[in-house]
């Protein structure tokens, strides 16, 4: 790996602090750069080991531990209905041919529709494509927490966005053109034609492409902004919604005089605490409760439900298949609920952030995703199984983006695994959710309670089941009382299989385990196992989509003292857009 350039930027708000969590180092000021250096300054971890080499550039292909990947949802995909899929050899998805953008007969622009489909968000064509080169001899960029920006930094951020908005509409660096990138890769403008499958769309959500696509997208976005203000140190702020002080929309986003302002946001949410588990309508939880719930959601999605690469990144998605294997933990939540929480309910489709086609039109989108991207870095710092996927089809997936010089550049997933190679990292701030493990709602009072309530509550369910009301079902555990070693080798996973839902709606349901009371547990209680959430988007002329959901059970069942039980009571509570959801099956696997 090329040695790190000396960082020349000091993130605003950078002060030396002693933090309470195990991710903490010293200040974001650069003496501690990189966090991943030989002098790994991380404190002793809580329960999950954090390794110093999380950011090293050693090629993970050389350290193949394919088992994590192969035992993931790959096997499951076969169980879901894949009959419409042409014979699939292992092959990565190749960057789209942008000259064919919007010509997909299955998804082309349908005039008069309120939500545009892919055809009307195509980029200008380019006569040539360049290959990506790592930045060299450049200033290092430190992405700062958005709520800690100095007035000076806010001013330069605004100026950069203003200039981006002022570029001619046909310039690929123009603000709307940049927003269109997201729409094109999400709303069916591109097909897998470069991979030989012209009638299957490319979709960068709901699978293992989610993290790398958005990392590359932001990489170029940030460089364009920096070049427009002639500041090679400019770094995209991250909306730090995983820490209490960062849980509101930073004020400067709400000032109409600022270029980062967007009128299409939920007016009731401009000041309050974000709800990382947003159900599509406001609840009466107090801000204090929301903060507590948010931290617990973070712990669950980053720790309990992200025990291996498939759980964190999402299921596999190769050339020739539809992205149905399922999105990763963080993509489902908090990523999706935050979109919906900001989106404007006065708009027909929750524009801007509340719908995929329009999300990129809100500047907050990029700060939201900057924090999502930061989660990737934090997740890898946990070490152990918290590694990038090693499957060559993931590593060799490619995309194209316009860079700051208006060149179309082809990039590969394998080149975006380490932010320091890409010339940026994140300001070090507290990570309070590491210590926010949910607690059981009711401690188990001896054996008496065991299974009796569960069995009584469960209903006979015949699959596929419709989710128009709460579903309670007893799910058998193929193994119980596993040894420590067995648990380390394989996570016990709850799989909700073959979820068919209306992709034009905001869809969310919550999953609970062994919750024997009538009203469901709160997110900061152990019984709450996770949420399935999908942002609306139109694609391929059809509205129903199919996918899977998974949640980690090993730690959860230990905490509920239910590790010796034969079965678990699974409760699924529909929260939004659930009228037409059906579920093919619920089962427990080990992977
Ligand atoms: Cu591509 Cu947050 O979505």
Topology:
Blueprint: H1 67-70, H2 74-79, E1 129-131, E2 141-143, H3 151-166, H4 175-186, E3 191-192, E4 197-201, H5 210-228, H6 287-304, H7 309-313, H8 329-342, H9 363-380, H10 392-395, E5 398-402, E6 408-412, E7 424-426, H11 452-457, E8 465-466, E9 471-476, H12 484-489, E10 492-502, E11 507-513, E12 528-534, E13 544-552, H13 554-559, E14 567-576, E15 582-590
Parallel strand pairs: 1-6, 2-7
Antiparallel strand pairs: 3-4, 5-6, 8-15, 9-14, 10-13, 10-15, 11-12, 11-14
Helix pairs in contact: 3-5, 5-9, 6-8, 8-9
The structure holds CU-O-CU linkage.
What does this structure look like?
With 591 residues, the chain is an alpha+beta fold. The chain is 23% helix and 15% strand. It contains 13 helices and 15 strands. The chain has helices spanning 67-70, 74-79, 151-166, 175-186, 210-228, 287-304, 309-313, 329-342, 363-380, 392-395, 452-457, 484-489, 554-559, and strands at 129-131, 141-143, 191-192, 197-201, 398-402, 408-412, 424-426, 465-466, 471-476, 492-502, 507-513, 528-534, 544-552, 567-576, 582-590. The strands form 5 sheets. The chain has a 4-stranded antiparallel sheet with strand order 8-15-10-13. Helix 3 (151-166) crosses helix 5, helix 6 (287-304) packs antiparallel against helix 8 and helix 8 runs antiparallel to helix 9. The radius of gyration is 23 Å and the shape is globular. It starts with 66 loop residues before the first helix and ends with a strand. The structure holds CU-O-CU linkage. Belongs to the tyrosinase family. Keywords: Copper, Disulfide bond, Metal-binding, Oxidoreductase, Thioether bond. Cu cation A binds at residues 182, 205, 214.
